[in-house]
Amino acid sequence: MSATTLKRESARDKILELAEAAVLQKGFGATSIEELIAGASISKSGFFYHFPDKGELAKALLLRYIERDRVILDDIFNRADALNDDPLHGFLVALKLFADMMAAMTEVHPGCMVASVCYQEQLFDREVHELARDAALAWRVRFRARLDAIVAQYPPRVPVDLEDLADMLSVMMDGGITISRIMRDPQLLARQVVLYRAFVRAVFLGA
Amino acid sequence: MSATTLKRESARDKILELAEAAVLQKGFGATSIEELIAGASISKSGFFYHFPDKGELAKALLLRYIERDRVILDDIFNRADALNDDPLHGFLVALKLFADMMAAMTEVHPGCMVASVCYQEQLFDREVHELARDAALAWRVRFRARLDAIVAQYPPRVPVDLEDLADMLSVMMDGGITISRIMRDPQLLARQVVLYRAFVRAVFLGA
DNA sequence: AAGCCGACTGCACCTGCGGTACAGTCATGC
DNA sequence: GCATGACTGTACCGCAGGTGCAGTCGGCTT
Question: Do A158 and B195 touch (CB under 8 A)?
Answer without folding.
Answer: no
